[in-house]
Specification:
Blueprint lengths: L8 E2 L7 E3 L5 E11 L8 E9 L3 E6 L3 E4 L3 E4 L15 E2 H5 L3 E4 L5 E11 L5 E9 L11 E5 L3 E2 L10 H6 L6 H9 L3 H10 L2 H10 L2 H10 L2 H10 L2 H9 L3 H10 L2 H11 L6 H4 L6 E2 L5 H8 L11 E5 L10 E6 H6 L23 H11 L3 E5 L5 E6 H8 L16
Parallel strand pairs: 2-7, 14-15
Antiparallel strand pairs: 1-10, 2-3, 3-4, 3-8, 4-5, 4-11, 6-7, 9-10, 9-13, 10-11, 11-12, 15-16, 17-18
Helix pairs in contact: 3-5, 5-7, 7-9, 8-10, 14-15
Length: 419
């Protein structure tokens, strides 16, 4: 069946069929298929095929290289990596590990055996397991049980369970999951298990997760972790999120953690903690992109290209008199990245600043900030003090976060798409 029309494929039927390059030359035969089992309710995803090439070497061909699948051949394109296939810890082989595996019917609790798995391609061009061809247990020694096709949603037993795996193995299977989804999974774990997983994350990953966890869960987790580890993670967090987290702790805990931090980082957080949570000062980050007026468009674009920068903060740069650390010298204006892309690299940013974007004061209310974002289609808004010094920037994601109910992270309405 071609990739452009029917897209359902039964994996067991692929074993032994030939794999051909665009010239029609056979490069090998399919020996197995590689899947990644995921957390419920997400079905396994097919990542590639194990193909045997002469002389009896098994290699991996990703599904992105497969251009056509039919009942008697598979066509692939591009240069093949002839390195010998080595199975990773988060990968499961269909023929070797899933066929004949017992699964459970959701409706009846009956155990059935997997004979085959059907995959289909979704709009994102990922191949997902959508159906299973299964067999019931037979009566007597020689009688085979009834066979039938069950939808993925009708069975359990082919998903990973975070509660039953070592933290390192669990996390290795989540290397593509988004922080918001990982936080959602972690929040449903028992406290002891949650702590184990948190300790297995690096500082940057844990910072991302803490930014997404419900307030009660992240406070509990911070209180269980060692103080020095918490400090390292706070320094990785966006300043506004770190200040939000500190505000949920006791004054004694705040004082202890701030005393352990680098002085500059601690000063930023102390300043943010003085603002009301639902004000521009309470929502802003103190680390936007700030440049002096003699910087060039090339300088600004180099800053925007930083892959660790959130998209909303990368949308514009702010031009101020020195110093450029917040609170800065006098605020001059902002440059949107689209304008930067239209200008020659050597152009000074001071010559193309948008002076029509009015900044707000840190005591501006959520209602005022929200109306400005809506009225002017903004993704970020500068915040200045009485002396017109830049204090930071409010981004649209923080505005939305403050507009939603406090328990919005705990609601499970299917709105999050999992990896």
């Amino acid at each position: 069946m071609t990739m452009g029309s029917a897209t359902r494929v039964f994996l067991a039927h692929l074993r032994g069929i030939g794999v051909f390059d665009p010239n029609g030359d056979q490069v090998g035969k399919v020996r197995d298929a590689v899947t990644i089992l995921r957390l419920e309710p997400n079905p396994p995803i097919l990542t590639g095929l194990v193909v045997e090439v002469p002389p009896r070497r098994r290699i991996f061909i990703p599904m992105g290289r497969v251009t056509d699948i039919s009942s008697n051949q598979i066509l692939v394109t591009g240069t093949l990596n002839l390195r010998r296939f080595e199975q990773r810890s988060n990968e499961t082989l269909v023929a070797a590990e899933l066929l004949d595996r017992p699964v459970t019917l959701v409706e009846t609790g009956e155990s059935v055996s997997v004979l085959d798995l059907a995959i289909e391609q979704n709009r994102a061009h990922d191949w997902l397991v959508t159906q299973l061809f299964v067999r019931r247990k037979g009566a007597g020694l020689r009688r085979r049980g009834e066979t039938f096709i069950a939808d993925w949603t009708e069975v359990t037993g082919l998903s990973i369970s975070p509660a039953d795996q070592p933290a390192e193995q669990f996390l290795s299977q989540l290397d593509t999951i988004r922080p918001a989804d990982l936080a959602s999974f972690i929040s449903h774990l028992p406290s002891k298990r949650r702590l184990e997983v948190a300790r297995s994350l690096d500082d940057e990953q844990l910072a991302d997760v803490l930014e997404e966890l419900p307030d009660d869960d992240r406070v509990e987790l911070v209180q269980l972790l060692e103080a020095e580890r918490v400090v390292d993670v706070l320094e990785e967090m966006d300043p506004d999120d770190a200040a939000d987290l500190l505000s949920e702790l006791t004054p004694e805990q705040q004082t202890d953690l701030l005393a352990r931090m680098e002085p500059d980082d601690a000063d930023d957080l102390r300043r943010l903690l003085t603002y009301d949570d639902f004000s521009a000062g309470g929502m802003m980050t103190s680390s936007p992109i700030v440049l002096p007026p003699d910087s060039t468009v090339a300088d600004a674009l180099a800053q925007i290209r930083n892959p660790d920068l959130p998209p909303a903060l990368a949308s514009q740069v702010y031009v101020t008199r020195p110093p450029t650390e917040t609170p800065t010298g006098r605020y001059l204006g902002a440059c949107h990245f689209q304008r930067l892309l239209r200008e020659p690299p050597g152009t000074l940013v001071s010559s193309i600043i948008d002076k029509s974007l009015e900044p707000v004061r840190p005591d501006a209310t959520l209602a005022v900030v929200t109306r400005m974002f809506a009225a002017y289609n903004l993704v970020a808004l500068p915040v200045v003090d009485e002396a017109n010094r830049l204090l930071g920037a409010v981004t649209v994601d923080d505005v939305i976060d403050h507009m939603l109910p406090e328990d919005w992270r705990e609601e499970d309405d299917g709105g999050l798409s999992h990896a």
